Amino acid sequence: MEVLLKSARRFVDEVPAALAVVGVWGGELSEEGQRLDRKHRNLLSSMIEDLHFKGEFGETLLVPLGRLYGETQSREFALLFGLGKKRGTSLETVRKAGAKLVQAVRKLGFREAVTETFLSEKFGKKDASYALAEGALLGGYTWSKYKSAGSPGKRAERLRLWLARSARQSVDRAETIAEAVNYARDLVNEPPNVLTPAELAMRVQAMAQEVGLDVEIWDEAQIKQAGMGAFYGVAQGSANPPRFIQLTYKPQNPASKVLALVGKGLTFDTGGYSLKPSEGQITMKCDMAGAAAVLGAMRAIARLKPELEVRAYVAAAENMISGSAYRVSDLLRSLSGRTIEVLNTDAEGRLTLADAITFADWQGADAIVELSTLTGACVVALGEKIAGLFANNPRLGREVQEAAERAGEKVWPMPMEEEYLEALKSSTADLKNTHGRSRSAGAIHAALFLGEFTEKPLVHLDIAGPAYTEKDHDLGPAGGTGFGVRTLIELAQAL
Ligand code: BES
Ligand code: ZN
Ligand code: ZN
User: Fold this and answer.
1) pTM for this entry
2) For residue range 162-212, what is the model confidence (pLDDT) as tens digits?
3) Quick one: which atom of ligand 1 is closest to the CA of 446?
4) So which residues are the catalytic ones?
């Protein structure tokens, strides 16, 4: 999917594509549509009336313009594109319209289309064009890498959407950000036998070189040597050795602030000896979606060049069963020196994250934002669309929440209730990794556990719900969603 810019001022003049998209709001031509020359306007208006086109959101009507004017050879078409009711619309409406639009164009068999910018009269050309381009680039994403050439689901063709030249800046930004989201989606969608911790590290190394980030990668021996016993405990059962990945973005002028991003990087989570039922394992290649979000964001940050230093940390491992795997009751010594009693090997994310957070803190982070597919309990609480936001510092919490709002990603504040910390005290170690048999407040206990590993301002986003979907959604197909990338980019640019 590409978004290109056309030089024509009006969107059907010098149409560079055979298909011109005209919006329909509440059963009437959009404002832009009203400004078409009389011939086009009258024809399209009468099509809407005569064919009772209601223009429900995403509904389309293909109009063979040329032929209706009696040019039998003509291959010129207009696509009436339903946008629903104008009342209550937001930029999210435009974003979704962009996604729906490219899906409709593809389905109709066109390779390119030119479109007006919906709702620019309401939100301004800049923001509306941005939302439209971003929606189109996210909605145009497909994952068919492992389908054979010529097979039905294989997507090889390029789809092009033309927008007004005046949208240049918006399109540039949309491209950088959508590309980062789609990069994260690709990482999540890769099967776990392909994307092992070592393979992830190799890809990050190549990406860092491409966009100009500093990168450092530790292997198994270095992780052990550094004293990351909680992380290593999780990793020790897999034949695929772990990697610790560090990325650094430094702004041109030395920055006074360092933002650390930490992402959960379990390339697969079987649950370990506290084994997940087969059903529960089906989506567990998504257990590195936090890492993918952080890495995608770093890719865009390297290009957008905000004024603060940003560092990223990923403890990449696989949670498996074997003769060398960690057990229930094992005692792990974390990097912080704190000892942890393992009560459940499926609560592995917090163990890997504990060491990553400690390390980020020791390296001089002023604020830490951590993303993880951490608990099923968070999905029970907030569902598939909303991430839980846990903050030990109200100001950083607000900043992340506001960034998410601007980015169009849904997060909701959850409490880090200190009274619940009692349940994580162990009789034999400093902490235990779960609160035991009780199933209450699982997402909060997980957040409190992480909170024990830094005194710095920390925000934990539990993205177990929105990181992955088994159904197509408004802004893309089933699979990894790239959730969190846009929020992190907004945050880095706002701080
Ligand atoms: N990776 C899972 C959480 C998860 C569940 C992510 C569903 C995405 C969708 C995590 O490692 C896990 O298994 N957590 C346990 C914690 C429990 C043992 C305290 C859970 O949620 O059941
Ligand atoms: Zn688990
Ligand atoms: Zn997990």
Assistant:
1) 0.96
2) 998 888 999 999 999 999 999 999 999 999 999 999 999 999 999 999 999
3) 19
4) 276, 350
